[in-house]
Structures
1.
Amino acid sequence: MAEPQPVTDEILTVHRFSRDGADFVVRCPHCKDVIGIEGPVRGSQYQHRYVGRPGAGCRGWLDVSYDAKLVEEV
């Protein structure tokens, strides 16, 4: 089965992130799901997909800005 195509090829910028225990989370700017990410957070790019679940996630790309704020809730 072929991988689903991303919602858009555009890399959207995220300006806020939060902690969930020892992990970091952001809200995907494409589909609005809250997703876990690995650090270093600021200045990094991520693709929204779920490891171990082929085809899950919107597959959109996001970039956490260098000046992104750590907030209590995204």
2.
Amino acid sequence: MKRKIIYKIIAGLLIYFILNTCYKLYKNYTISETCLSNTFNNKYLDLSNLKINSIHNFDEIFNCQEWDEIFVTSSIYYYRGIGYLYTGVLVPSYDKFQYPEGTALLYFMKNNAIISNPLPLYSDNFIFSNHYGKSNSVRIKRKHAKFIYKKHEHTDFELNTLELINDYD
């Protein structure tokens, strides 16, 4: 009797996982250019235009469409399958060789699904240093997506970073 219940629970979880993965794959294939992508490209395509110690509140900058979180990954060292198992976020497939090493890819999310194309954060003197987790990614809630563009303090090189401002309520 108990064995049947355990099998039903496992089967239910497996069906849920498969349906959830299919839903996220469908959402990834239906992503198109949005005002989020356009705003991002206008503001962050050339990071050398940003001023040192400038504040960037993504909640205010990207208010043209609803989104819940941003998801940032390393373009080279992020593996979709492992990342999906760790985070539950299935990113669209992309060519890793399309981006230079050191590029961070930013995605906007709504209801735990990606709603934007990968948006690259890259410059020769830029590093995204906000403590990637085990899957080389980080999730940031909309209300906490506030950054300061500043000199990276933990290096001997002339690097700048968008550092998360920890002013949680």
3.
Amino acid sequence: MASYNTDPEALAWARSHIQQYLDRLADFEQQAHAKSDMVTEIACAAARAMTQKHFLGDGLRTIGVFEQRPTPFDQTPGSRP
């Protein structure tokens, strides 16, 4: 099993596959909107948002385990998580 934190090629591969999945969810969401299928639209939007946050983060931190990078606060000696 690859360590995504230390293997840039593996990280790029994982990010590209996650982005493809996010793009598919966005497409399903748009199709559902066009068909006035609000339940599917909301479900796809929620799945897309959670996947984005879990795996790619919001620019500050991720929830997922494959790419957790410490913030400057975490690097401060004596700081608590």
4.
Amino acid sequence: MPHALVLLGFLAATVTLSLAAHMTIGSIVILLASSGGIGSAVLVAVSVSKGSGRRLLQRLLKAALSSGTGS
């Protein structure tokens, strides 16, 4: 369910930006993708600064590096 709410939020932001700001869909996708990446980086940085965040960062890196290998 949370994934559906995130997708719905991105869809609503896309429609709002295309109608109100007269932006192209390509510009909106780049804007939302970069803001999502920055948000993820901030969450990882905050969790790493706390005690158990180092293990989370290691797991995320391991998952990112091994994605698509079938393991």
